[in-house]
Specification:
The protein is an alpha/beta fold. It has helices spanning 16-30, 49-52, 59-77, 96-109, 125-142, 183-190, 200-217, and strands at 6-11, 34-39, 81-84, 113-116, 157-161, 175-178, 230-235. The protein has one domain: Rossmann fold (3-Layer(aba) Sandwich), CATH 3.40.50. Helices cover 39% and strands 14% of the residues. The protein has a seven-stranded mixed beta sheet, with helices on both faces. The longest helix has 19 residues, at 59-77. Bound molecules: zinc ion (ZN).
Length: 245
């Protein structure tokens, strides 16, 4: 099983993994990479306004709907596994137990790369807390003195996916990923998010615009690659390469 390749997504709320890296999940699954998704919460309080407007809504009914949507979306993307921590949202409760649970997942999954939120997000502190939380869990999972005897984590790259209202987040893409081959899967996952209809068109537009940037940065009309839909990511760590290209 040494050639088994894996990846881990850490999503603050149930829908973030769909809007921000659904294409990356579907694409890598198609390439044989097992992608595990951790949802720290269901976004039940802060990202479910449409559900709260329904008669008789309670925290439990909203959570159940959001869990169902996340499961359907993960299935539409072909994700290997979906793990829901159910930590509550707005704000997330990121305590020691939750941190060590994520460390255990990191060591069990041994991801080749990690996808998570941007470093800064003044609109949504859950998002930036998730990035810091994931970075700290990664560090602990690398420590030989933490639960000695377990397989320690290597040095997986962290890719920060595109936040909402991008320009205000200090997020700058360092790569664009062509998700055209799996766009239909991402769109199907987007349409699982019944609680957030207002974002379906928005995130389709984002993918189209990033497709345009992919074409431009790959050479444009002077021989660039065609690309209809893309996702942007910001790498945290240097990439180790044998030659520049
Ligand atoms: Zn969110």
């Amino acid at each position: 099983m040494s050639d088994r390749k894996t990846a881990l997504v850490v999503s603050a709320h149930a829908a973030d993994f769909v809007w921000r890296c659904g294409g990356a999940i579907a694409l890598h699954q198609d390439k044989g990479v097992e992608v595990t998704i951790v949802c720290l919460s269901f976004g039940e309080r802060g990202e479910s306004a449409r559900l709260w407007k329904q008669e008789g809504a309670t925290l439990e009914t909203v959570k159940a709907v959001r869990r169902g949507e996340a499961e359907k979306a993960a299935e539409a993307l072909g994700a290997h596994d979906l793990i829901c921590f159910d930590l509550g949202d707005y704000p997330l409760t990121l305590d020691e137990a939750a941190k060590h649970r994520l460390v255990d997942v990191l060591r069990a999954v041994q991801p080749a790369f990690i996808l998570t939120h941007s470093k800064y997000d003044p609109y949504n502190t859950d998002h930036m807390a998730t990035m810091a939380f994931t970075m700290e869990a990664r560090m602990i999972a690398q420590a030989w003195g933490h639960n000695p005897g377990e397989k320690v984590l290597g040095a997986p790259q962290m890719y920060l996916f595109e936040p909402h209202q991008t320009e205000q987040m200090g997020w700058v893409p360092s790569l664009f990923l062509d998700i055209t081959p799996v766009w239909e899967k991402k769109r199907a996952a987007i349409e699982c998010m019944e609680g957030q209809h207002h974002l379906w068109t928005y995130y389709t537009n984002v993918a189209e615009n990033r497709g345009n940037h992919f074409r431009r940065n790959s050479g444009g009309q002077a021989g660039g690659r065609d690309c209809k839909y893309a996702e942007g990511f910001q790498a945290v760590f240097p990439r180790c390469v044998d030659e520049l290209q």
